[in-house]
Amino acid sequence: MFLGALILYWTYRDFDVSKLDDIFDGGINWWWMMASMPFGILAQLFRGWRWKLSLVPLGETPKVGHCVNAVFVSYAANLLVPRVGEISRCGILKNFDGVSFTKSLGTVVTERVIDSLCVLLITGVTLLTQMGVFSVFFKETGTDLRQLAGQFTSVHYIILGISTIAILALLLYIVKKISFFTKVKSKFNNLCEGIFSLRVVTEKWLFLFYTIGIWASYILHFSLTLYAFDFTAHLGFVASLVMFAVGSIAVVVPTPNGAGPWHFAVITMLGLYGVGLEDAGIFALLVHSIQTLLIVLLGIWGMLALSLEKKEINK
Questions:
Q1: CB atoms closer than 10 angstroms to residue 248
Q2: Kind and range of the H or E element at 19?
Q3: Which percentage of the chain shows pLDDT scores above 70?
Q4: Among residues 230, 305, 292, which one has the least CA distance to residue 75?
Q5: What integer pLDDT is reported at residue 4 of this predicted model?
Q6: Torsion, Cα of 177, 60, 48, 189 (10° steps)
Q7: Could you give the CA distance from residue 271 to residue 252 in angstroms, rounded to a whole number?
Q8: Residue 37 class from Cβ within 10 Å (0-12 exposed, 13-18 middle, 19+ buried)?
Q9: Which of 22-26, 252-256, 285-289 has the highest mean pLDDT?
Q10: Residue 91 in 3-state DSSP?
Q11: Residue (of 186, 53, 66) closest to 107 by Cα position
């Protein structure tokens, strides 16, 4: 959280806050912003449904609603302590359905690997298909790549350095956590069984459909927000895909919902497409804040639903 706050401070230290008043006074099309919200919900629904598929072959049969609500809660929990959500959702299924904690944790590890591959695929395709766009942009604007690189100040390099250190620290933390589970053989076997659960998923095409649905929903959740602002509405889907890919890589840094690194990445890419620094800052700040609010609301919904069910069970 401190890291995200630090990067946000450096990114917005010269930002004119008064410009936000102009945006709220008619400078934002709320219809487009609201149109993007269902896709944010749908992405988490797909994730919950997919998680259920990976658990069934392991002999675990949690309720679909528990899987979905656990995902809702996990994303909200990550806002408080980055990456703790993965642990919390496994605990929820353990508590409500008696699902093996280590098995479910193994499926989450596999899920993260699949997500990483999806991000790499989206990034690779985007780079390959948009090289011509970047070339045209540099030609028309007379921008030299060396000149573009020279625009990175020492602050940019400091942010990138801190983010890299944070990623390495996160990897070290994960390794230590895994080594803790390996001390108990049975736990380790369950963990491995969960990690390799994809091999025994019976409905692989449905699993693939859910995976595509997750990332298609994420892309639309972000892309539609471009049309909510006059200064980004003209950019279109291609530009949004480029920014989505870069932003997805940025959120690897362990900050609440990628706060800080995501803003930095999106503002930088908007600048590449000719959007002014102030406008780019407004876009990143508002879109991230609204999407984070959605995560909070879904987390509250998930907690309430699980709590009410717990009360019914206790009665």
A1: 23
A2: helix 19-22
A3: 69
A4: 292
A5: 57
A6: 20
A7: 22
A8: middle
A9: 285-289
A10: helix
A11: 53
